[in-house]
Automatic annotation (TrEMBL):
SUPFAM superfamilies in the cross-refs: FAD/NAD(P)-binding domain, TPR-like
Organismal lineage: Bacteria, Bacillati, Actinomycetota, Actinomycetes, Kitasatosporales
Organism (species): Streptomyces mordarskii
Name the record gives this protein: FAD-dependent urate hydroxylase HpyO/Asp monooxygenase CreE-like FAD/NAD(P)-binding domain-containing protein
PANTHER family: BLR0577 PROTEIN (PTHR40254)
Renumbered residue ranges of the record's region Disordered: 454-480
InterPro entries cross-referenced by the UniProt entry: FAD/NAD-bd_sf, HpyO/CreE_NAD-binding, L-asp_N-monooxygenase_NS-form, TPR-like_helical_dom_sf
Pfam families associated with the record: NAD_binding_9, TPR_19
Location of the FAD-dependent urate hydroxylase HpyO/Asp monooxygenase CreE-like FAD/NAD(P)-binding domain: 2-154
Length: 900
């Protein structure tokens, strides 16, 4: 009952949890509003009304904090950041859209009905030997029965008991400024009549901005006379209190909090991080206080806490500041003592303030005191019916109702009825419970409780958890899958395409989770390829779905794999590598995990500086894979990395004979040809494979890049330009692949003198998302972002990338950040500094992942810097060493030129 923000959040969790568990039921949403998700708070159309919490903290999901920001980016606000304050109407649209998607995803499992009316009563009956059932009485005269009920009614309405008798019932007294059309008359009066707002909180601020116009003064009055404080423009992280606060007396608590704020002020110069650091412990502190202390806190410090805890967005604070400076807004500490009507219909109001009595002529008085605290005094017929029949009891201080983690206490203290609430009705027991970060966590808890057969009556016929299978389908490696046959088939197809480096893996994996939203491995594989392969996947959402699903149905292998993906996405590379190695120790036959571990073409692999860990993994897992073409392909790649080219070539040919479409085997063979200096043969073999077996490959651009390396070595510039136009130009290649292959080839071609005329690096950069260029998730992508930026001569871009790298994982800090500095030196023609920086970096480069051929571009850039710095002897030495390893007409010509 109630489909505003709180109701929508519960409904989202119910739909998604039921879809994961395949638990069918009917969901009934009762709310008179035209659209679910908005409620009172998010229905305002005024663009000046903004959220008072940054967008990065307003996600629907406790375990996916960036969800709202990503939604904004995909719905017309691509540059939005987590610290921005979005319009409240946009947040309402987000809630409605997310709920709609959750309902669609649960089709076939959850049946959803909406009744555009209000619930006016809830009567509980228990049949002999049966479970409690609620009969809901509706304002339109209908009744419906429900087995479980969630009261998502939001804050209780204020009753305006503070208003003078003469004001009540007057047409110029607006008791609910958020009611549709409530302010229309005041907005239509032009600029001749002032307005009095009773209350100085966030509601008052919003209404003041709506009613503001030249020539009008908006007066505001409250007992404290305090307006909300402003959020910082550049907020600092929350600072946790180091002093235990639970169980302190109110005077001791006040002293400890003041000391905490003082310490933070001395350290950071701002009190806000101190107050934000109290948020996680506020509910615990409130629970530890006696009834008398709570009452004293509300009376003496409640207003002070609220004005500092619930702050204005910076833009709102600036607008209010302008209104106050220009005297269009005036604030008083006091109360409204009397009001009388004037002959023209306007009002004369008398205020009692600290500066003495004050009389104001105003056209309107608006109640902005906010919701009532005492639900026990409510006139709402629904809550009244529950309180009167003993199905609910008032909470502490009469605020809200008493619950056990959201489940209502009856008058006898029991929680036998399947009846829950969240948000504002829990104010008495939690104090801080009206913001989205608290409500979304409560919504998730309630959804779990509602769908848990152990805490509520049985579902109607056909409901309940899906029966556990005695035999489960398996993946291609033989591991059982916690899903049904259709989803398993789609998953196997997706993994098969990943292992062969062929197109269609994301589509197949998406189908697997569409068929079974509770299939953890399907979600985890999607998150993995989005994070490491640049696939068009909402990585955070896919990972959150995987982690939710794996808690509900999974075996040890599945839990281990989800943990691997989680650590690779959320933690440091070292954590990800440790988890992956542990997984392969326990499950050596897992082909997908092995593909992740080996840095060939699809994944970044294990990040070790000497490159031996991945080789040991491949060798150690050989018995579990036998003579499989996939394992042979990986072994071929690792042998060429060791420089054992004859053996690598033979293994690659063996794998290709068994599976001609094996991209890993062809990739290993491409490296063998390049490192041997067999440029003509290598180009020809790649051409044939691309024209036939490689036509459906996901990384065709990378194989084209390999062919172009042969052409650069052969100094066939015409072929390089043709290959660029036909296979590597933007439109043919996009996103991360364009950076890794197209951008790096352009820079190599320029360094080799093989590119004359217009240089299309700008086209490459336009295809890459801003996040990939400025905030890459992995060091390997960061390396290629830096290459594209130096090729474009983008000095500010390199500096932004360096700042990101310094805040990222250890490899980015130790390799990418100094690489950006060296590239900046090149752009500013500080050749000696650039050469020294790049020379120091070369030994550390293997840590970024990828192949030696890919990382070689840094050595190419070093050669350019050495020659430009006049250090020709050093450049000759590096070229001679390289020519000792492999033949290259281009390197031979460069060496001759340097020696002449």
């Amino acid at each position: 009952m109630g489909a505003g923000a709180a109701g929508a959040l519960v409904a989202i969790q119910l739909c998604e949890t039921a879809a994961r568990r395949r638990t069918p039921f009917e969901l009934l949403l009762i709310d008179p509003a035209p659209e679910a998700g908005r409620g009172i708070a998010y229905s305002t159309l005024d663009p000046r009304h903004r959220l008072n919490v940054p967008a990065g903290k307003m996600s629907c999901y406790p375990d996916d904090p960036g969800h709202f920001v990503r939604w904004l980016c995909h719905h017309g606000e691509p540059g939005v950041r987590g610290g921005d304050f979005a319009e409240r109407y946009r947040y309402g649209a987000y809630l409605a859209d997310t709920l709609g998607r959750a309902i669609m995803a649960a089709q076939g499992v959850v049946t959803v009905r909406r009744l555009r009316t209000r619930a006016t009563g809830c009567r509980w009956t228990t049949l002999p030997g049966g479970d409690p059932t609620a009969r809901l009485e509706l304002a339109d005269g209908r009744t419906v029965d429900a087995h479980r009920v969630v009261l998502a009614t939001g804050p209780s309405r204020a009753n305006a008991e503070w208003a003078p008798e003469a004001l009540r019932g007057n047409d110029r007294f607006i008791t609910d400024p958020w009611a549709p059309g409530a302010l229309d008359a005041a907005l239509g009066q032009g600029d001749k009549e002032d307005v009095l707002l009773v209350g100085t909180g966030l509601t008052s601020v919003d209404i003041a901005m709506t009613l503001d116009r030249p020539g009008r003064t908006v007066h505001t009055v409250s007992r404290g006379g305090r307006l909300p404080q402003a959020h910082a423009v550049d907020p600092l992280p929350a600072a946790a209190c180091t002093t235990p606060l639970h169980g302190l007396s109110l005077p001791a608590l006040r002293a400890a909090v003041r000391q905490h704020i003082g310490r933070v002020m001395r350290t950071h110069g701002d009190w806000r991080p101190a107050v934000d650091g109290l948020r996680p412990v506020a509910a615990g502190i409130w629970a530890s206080m006696s009834t008398e202390e709570r009452a004293e806190f509300v009376a003496r410090y409640g207003s002070l806490w609220n004005t500092h805890r619930h702050r204005m967005p910076p833009a709102t604070a600036e607008a209010v500041g302008r209104m106050r400076r220009t005297r269009r807004m005036r604030t008083y500490q006091g109360r409204l003592a009397a009001a009388s009507a004037r002959p023209d219909g306007s009002l004369t109001v008398s205020l009692t303030t600290g500066d003495g009595p004050r009389t104001l002529p105003v056209g309107w008085v608006v109640d902005c005191t906010g919701p009532g605290l005492r639900l026990s005094d409510t006139a709402d017929p629904l809550w009244r019916s529950l309180l009167d029949q003993g199905a609910a009891m008032p909470g502490p201080l009469g605020m809200g109702v008493a619950t056990d983690d959201g489940r209502l206490h009856g008058a006898d203290g029991s929680t036998t009825r399947p009846l829950w609430t969240l948000g504002a009705p829990r104010r008495g027991e939690l104090w801080e419970t009206t913001a989205i970060p608290e409500i979304r966590a409560q919504a998730a808890t309630i959804a779990e409780a509602v769908l848990d057969p152990g805490t509520a009556p049985a579902l109607p016929a056909g409901g309940g958890p899906a029966r556990r299978r005695t035999r489960r389908p398996t993946d291609a490696s033989g591991f059982p899958l916690s899903t049904h046959a259709a989803a398993a088939t789609a998953y196997r197809l997706g993994v098969d395409r990943l292992l062969k480096v062929r197109a269609g893996a994301p589509q197949a994996l998406r189908r697997s989770v569409a068929l079974d939203p509770g299939f953890a491995l399907g979600h985890a594989a999607l998150a993995l390829i989005g994070h490491e392969c640049g696939a068009d996947v909402d990585v955070s959402r896919a990972l959150a779905d995987a982690r939710r699903a794996v808690r509900e149905r999974a075996d040890d292998h599945e839990r281990s794999f989800v943990d691997v993906v989680s650590r690779r996405v959320l933690h440091t590379p070292a954590d990800g590598d440790t988890a992956l190695l542990r997984h392969l120790e326990e499950h050596p036959g897992d082909a997908l995990a092995l593909a992740v571990a080996v840095p060939t073409i699809a994944f970044s692999g294990l990040r070790d500086l000497d490159g031996t860990t991945a080789l040991r993994v491949v060798e150690r897992t050989a018995p579990a894979h036998g003579e499989s073409w996939f394992h042979t392909s990986l072994l071929a790649f690792m042998r060429q990395e060791e420089g054992r080219y004859d053996e690598a070539g033979a293994l690659a040919e063996q794998a290709l004979a068994a599976e001609p479409a094996s991209g890993h085997a062809m990739h290993a063979l491409a490296h063998v040809h390049y490192e041997r200096g067999d440029h003509e043969a290598g180009r020809e073999r790649l051409q044939r494979w691309l024209a036939h077996q490689g036509r459906g490959g996901t990384h065709r651009a990378h194989f084209s890049w390999h062919a172009a390396l042969h052409e650069l070595a052969l100094e066939d510039t015409v072929a390089v330009r043709r290959r660029w136009a036909e296979q590597l130009s933007p439109g043919k290649v996009d996103g991360v692949r364009a950076l890794v292959d197209s951008g790096s080839l352009l820079w190599r071609a320029r360094l080799a003198g093989a590119w004359q005329g217009p240089f299309p690096i700008g086209d490459v950069l336009e295809t890459a998302p801003v996040d990939v260029l400025e905030r890459p998730a992995t060091a390997f992508v960061a390396l290629h972002a830096a290459i594209a930026l130096i090729a474009a001569g983008d000095l500010p871009g390199l500096r932004r990338l360096r700042v990101h790298a310094l805040r990222a994982d250890e490899v980015q800090r130790s390799v990418i950040a100094p690489l950006c500095t060296a590239f900046e030196d090149i752009l500013e023609e500080r050749w000696t500094e650039a050469a020294r920086g790049l020379e120091r970096l070369l030994p550390r480069l293997p840590g970024v992942g990828g192949s030696a051929a890919q990382r070689e571009i840094v050595e190419e850039t070093l050669l350019f810097a050495l020659v430009s710095a006049g250090r020709c002897d050093a450049a000759r030495g590096r070229l001679e060493e390289r020519l000792d390893r492999r033949s290259s007409p281009h390197d031979r010509r460069r060496l001759t030129a340097l020696s002449s």
